[in-house]
Design a protein that fits this description.
With 657 residues, the protein is of the alpha/beta class. Among the domains are: 147 residues, Rossmann fold (3-Layer(aba) Sandwich); 126 residues, GMP Synthetase, Chain A, domain 3. The chain contains 21 helices and 30 strands. Strand 28, helix 19 and strand 29 form a beta-alpha-beta unit. Helix 3 crosses helix 4 and helix 5 crosses helix 7. The longest helix is centred in the N-terminal third of the chain and has 17 residues. The structure holds adenosine-5'-triphosphate and magnesium ion. The site of adenosine-5'-triphosphate has 23 residues, from strand 24. The site of magnesium ion has 2 residues, from loops.
């Protein structure tokens, strides 16, 4: 039953002022999948802990050695053999759960829906695996997948996993040249795509982009095309094959072969927020162990009753680990949604929650801030009393956004888990556990059982409680990247060279007085103002805590007096007017919240912020604007015209007192 929502304004300010921590709700605590003892068990015997997590999977051959660690190269569950697709699909059918829904798929056009049970999924994956064999794709071959959010996307991934082919999913919004470079880097021989997909109310084309990309990649032998939109596309009869012609006529029987625990499962290129994309390599046994265990623990998943929805695109790691592999390994029922949150109206997400009675929702801060901007009245129109756990991933979540999410989406009763991890880590690393640990708005809290992470100073020494520095991971973990595809040296240089013998993710963090961890954004973004390190995240969160601000991005610009000075770009909330006084008001608000040293030199009110295609703020470009430089590479932006709108604002920038 839904609780009566509390008065929003009052709740927000109270919660923030108290620096509130939320205790685990009693009903969850009584029945949580994991107990507090897991932390002690894992601390006493980390490898034993991960062995028990691996035992949740079905192994064709048990491993001999749990971990072989030749820093920084790890092998987990050495000698073990398993099949990922068997674990994600067949074993549930064999256990009598074939009629259970694996995916409720919701297309963007309304009433365009499909329901796939685990048995349906088995039939489709088997047929697709047989189709791969007919196309000459086998163990170790690379397959690029460039698709919209339709069921054939996870089916294609699972078919690859089944035959031991290595998939490389490229987000369907990337350009032909981005796709081409990823096809080339991995030397893919097959591309799986669709004629198009539906986004923002109209069909978008994918096949022409593939045509352009493969025109210059002679290694690609075939292009397998799903018909989704029925639009006219050009066709190369020697190379292109329709999915419905090839896959539908295959046998629905396929014998899954076991693969080594360290057999490559997939390559996924990082989004390119910080430079040339890196082909992150994940392997079989350790990856599935940690994605399945974390999905079970962090979301407290009850496969028989939960309806789980992760809103990420499968083209990002969040979709790989928490739409495909983790949930299916656990036998969960998930929702997949093809489109955008504002099509055909801004309540679409909440309509989906209401329709499927979603119990667990996993989304990103960028989406939450957008919903805040659109207004509280939109979610209030829907019945979301089914929800019980909420998750956040992708960026630090501003405390204001956290509290809004908890109150307006979670009805004040659902714990919010802020999950820190990366493409490279493969699975969640730092997060509260619902029903087990406390949670604080804005904090990822503590490393999960079995994960040894810390905050260190620039010499690599652990900082005391209350101190800040660099996040590091001190021991290998099962789902860690094994290398950068084809470039061991870059793997060592990028992640293992900043501090001796420990993994450096590139993020800044602090420990509060209780020892809980707060992520402070990428270290490249940290500002040095008059000799003080100031985190962009903290200034942004201070700005977002002002009632008139919906979103904020902060960068350090060169300053003759202070070294760097803080320049802020803000989007106002719906209804707030841009006025002469707003800049002063916001600057004073930051000074009051964080201290005078954090007072921004400039505040620019802008209509939009530059974001990557995965929705993260691209501060690098804002730094260029703030320092009057010409813009660097803008190809990973969702909308490059945003930068013109922002640049126009610059002459009117108020450089105050
Ligand atoms: P690239 O590596 O190409 O620049 P990216 O880092 O944005 O792209 P991802 O691997 O998807 O690609 O994102 C991981 C990063 O996102 C983390 O290193 C961190 O900076 C940020 N991040 C993810 N989740 C959280 C979180 N819960 N809190 C704070 N930061 C987070
Ligand atoms: Mg990264």
């Amino acid at each position: 039953m839904a609780e009566t929502p509390r008065e929003p304004q009052e709740t927000l300010s109270n919660l923030l002022q108290e620096n509130r921590r939320f205790a685990p709700p009693d009903d969850l605590a009584a029945a949580a999948n994991v107990t507090a003892a897991a932390y002690e068990e894992a601390a006493a015997d980390r490898l034993g802990f991960w062995e028990r997590a691996a035992d949740r999977l079905a192994w064709a051959k048990k491993w001999d050695t749990t971990l072989e660690w030749n820093p920084p190269f790890a092998k987990w569950f050495v000698g073990g053999q398993l099949n990922v697709a068997y674990n994600c699909v067949d074993r549930h059918v064999e256990a009598g759960r074939g009629d259970k829904v694996a995916y409720y798929w919701e297309g963007e056009p309304e009433d365009d829906t499909r329901v796939l049970t685990y048995r349906d999924l088995q039939v489709q994956v088997n047929k697709a695996a047989n189709a791969l064999a007919e196309l000459g794709v086998g163990k170790g071959d690379r397959v690029a997948i460039y698709m919209p959010m339709i069921p054939e996307l996870p089916i294609a991934m699972l078919a690859c996993a089944r035959v031991g082919a290595v998939h490389s999913v490229v987000f369907g919004g990337f350009s032909a040249s981005a796709l081409q470079s990823r096809i080339e880097d991995a030397d893919a021989k097959l591309v799986i795509t669709a004629d198009g997909g539906f986004r923002r109310g109209k069909p978008s084309a994918l096949k022409p982009t593939v045509d352009e990309a493969v025109a210059n990649t002679p290694g690609v032998e075939k292009v397998l095309v799903v018909r989704r939109t029925n639009q006219e596309i050009s066709w190369n009869g020697d190379r292109d094959v329709w999915w419905h012609d090839l896959v539908d006529r295959q046998s629905d029987q396929h014998e899954a072969q076991p693969h080594d625990a360290e057999h490559p499962l997939y390559i996924l290129y990082t989004s390119g927020t910080t430079g040339k994309p890196k082909g992150i390599l994940h392997t079989t046994g350790g990856y599935l162990t940690q994605t399945a265990w974390t999905h079970h623990a962090v979301f407290d998943l009850k496969p028989d009753t939960d309806i789980y929805w992760c809103t990420a695109d499968i083209g990002w790691v969040t979709g790989h680990s928490y739409i495909v592999y983790g949930p299916l390994a656990n036998g969960a029922t998930s929702v997949i949604y093809e489109g955008t949150p504002d099509t055909p109206h801004r309540g679409r997400f909440w309509e989906i929650v209401q329709k499927y009675k979603v119990t667990i929702l996993y989304t990103a801060p960028t989406a939450i801030r957008t919903f805040m901007k659109w207004g509280d009245d939109i979610p209030a129109k829907f019945d979301m009393s089914s929800l019980r756990v909420l998750g956040s991933v992708g960026e630090p979540i501003n405390p204001e956004a956290y509290v809004w999410y908890r109150e307006h989406i979670g009805g004040g009763r659902c714990p919010v888990v802020d999950t820190w991890w990366q493409t490279e880590t493969g699975a969640i690393m730092i997060s509260p556990l619902p029903g087990v640990t406390h949670a604080k708005p804005g904090a990822a809290m503590r490393p999960l059982p079995g994960i040894v992470a810390d905050v260190v100073d620039d010499q690599g020494n652990s900082v005391p409680n209350g101190g800040g520095g660099f996040l590091v991971v001190k021991e290998p973990w099962p789902s860690m990247l094994r290398t950068i595809w084809g470039d061991d040296k870059r793997y060592v240089d990028t992640y293992w060279s900043r501090f001796e013998g420990v993994y450096f993710p590139g993020d800044g963090a602090k420990k509060d007085e209780d020892g809980d961890i707060w992520l402070l954004g990428r270290v490249d973004d940290v500002m040095l103002v008059s000799g003080h390190n100031i985190s962009t995240t903290e200034v942004e969160s201070a700005l977002v805590s002002h009632p008139k601000v919906a979103e904020a991005a902060v960068v350090g610009a060169t300053d003759p007096v202070t070294g760097q000075a803080i320049v802020s770009f803000v989007i106002l909330r719906g209804g707030a007017e841009e006025s002469e006084d707003i800049a002063k008001e916001l600057r004073d608000h930051v000074a009051k919240t964080l201290g005078p040293i954090a007072k921004p030199r400039q505040i620019l009110v802008v209509p939009e912020l530059p974001k990557t295609r995965s929705g993260k703020i691209m501060r690098r470009l804002l730094r260029d604007v703030a320092e009057n430089r010409s813009l660097g590479d803008v190809t990973t932006l969702t909308d490059s015209s945003v930068m013109n709108l922002i640049a126009e604002k610059l002459p009117s920038a108020k450089s105050e007192d």
